[in-house]
Amino acid sequence: MATVSRGFGGRRQDPAGGDLAARTPPGQYLTDGFPVLSAGPTPGVRLEDWAFEITGGREPVGWTWEQFRRLPSERFTCDIHCVTRWSKLETAWEGVSLDTLLAPVAHDAGYAVAVSHGGYTTNLPLTDLLGGKAWVAHTYAGQPLHPEHGGPARLVVPHLYFWKSAKWIRGLRLTAQDEPGFWERAGYHDYGDPWTEQRYASA
Amino acid sequence: MDPVDGNALAGPLGTLFGQDVGDVTGVCAGCGLSSLLAETRVFDQAPGLVARCPGCEEVLATVIEMPRAVRLSLPGFRYVDIPSRTL
Predict the structure, then answer these.
(1) Which domains does chain A possess?
(2) Do B59 and A39 make contact, defined as CB atoms within 8 angstroms?
(3) B87/chain A closest Cα distance in angstroms
(4) pLDDT over 60 (residue A66)
């Protein structure tokens, strides 16, 4: 039986040659645009003021923008899924893997809270940040990441709903216990797996 | 991205305790500014509505339309005053 993606009259061409419907999580529609969502005003973060700091380990570890940009960057292409039901395939980024950023940090934490300029926070298990699954991205589609999409740098964790990919990230706070972030406290799911539609906290 | 005014809260909340939601007054726990909910700055291009203080931009309230409830969270208010009904 043929399956058709919701919202489309027919099967579209998958840029990677695969099955588009199979790459679209339940309840999502595909968009070619890149919608801008934000819980607040876009903070203007100057590169000379930018820093990324990981706290909660034995010692805080941090990088200035210059130091951060000297770390090895990876190019990665991924599909992203917003809880507001849009998905975008084959997004092309460049950023520093969380494996690289967490390597010098001695800790016994199980969780992290991503902390952003403007006060936004989101929580993730550390296992979801490690193993080549998460990056602090500074480049999108070959260009420096635009402020409205989280520039100078944002977290990108493509296997979870995109609210976990904190814009304007300025650091991680490592924690022993899971501590819900901004949307997680307000009513969204603690983990946010798009493939099992973990959209909301239970009400 | 530009916010809209607090009347956007009336969409999901409608009336709150029998009052038009815009007529509810609240005091920001951060800066102490008193404002009508209708005067807050609401960011609606987001997974929920985020009402921020017109004075200091702290998050006063969030509204999320969940499957079986509308969840109103008031993390930034010292208190809210809901006008008494006039009989």
Answers:
(1) 44-196 (3.90.420.10)
(2) yes
(3) 35
(4) yes
